[in-house]
């Protein structure tokens, strides 16, 4: 269990992020077109999971925009932005923003993603949502880098995530 804050107020997650060097837990997420994306189908590529509470908040929107800008220049790398948002919210946001270089993945159908990655917020006003995290996975499916952002309104360390590739 990790302790994180929202504007200084503490709350907790369901567990810990996967350890660096461990095999990344399998997942199935729903893309904005209602098709699915799995970790298995991304094998052979480097994967950055940009995980957050909701694309409809300022910091989450900023991280989606920032990774979209960086994604096109990353070799053999895919960025997956993950939240419990409905796929329609992702589609609306990305369409309005012209975001085309990241994959969006909703865990609305199945909470096993949050459970497997230990990042479900379990108390406080955001209970049930994903905490803000970054997980970088290599081509063989091993975790190369993780970041649990301590203060939910803060942005992740983009440079550290990209350097881990």
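^ Assign residues to that structure.
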């Amino acid at each position: 269990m990790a302790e994180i804050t929202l504007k200084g107020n503490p709350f907790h997650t369901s567990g810990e992020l996967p350890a660096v060097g461990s095999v990344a837990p399998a997942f199935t997420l729903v893309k904005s077109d209602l098709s699915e994306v799995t970790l298995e189908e991304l094998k052979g590529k480097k994967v950055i999971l940009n995980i957050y509470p909701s694309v409809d908040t300022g910091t989450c929107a900023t991280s989606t925009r920032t990774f979209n800008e960086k994604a096109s220049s990353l070799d053999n790398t895919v960025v997956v932005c993950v939240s419990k948002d409905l796929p329609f919210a992702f589609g609306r946001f990305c369409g309005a923003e012209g975001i085309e270089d990241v994959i969006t993945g909703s865990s609305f159908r199945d909470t096993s993603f949050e459970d497997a990655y230990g990042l479900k917020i379990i108390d406080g006003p955001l209970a049930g949502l994903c905490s803000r995290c970054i997980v970088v996975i290599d081509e063989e499916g091993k975790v190369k880098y993780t970041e649990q952002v301590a203060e939910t309104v803060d942005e992740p360390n983009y440079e550290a995530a990209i350097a881990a590739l």
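The CA atoms of residues 46 and 75 lie 8 Å apart.
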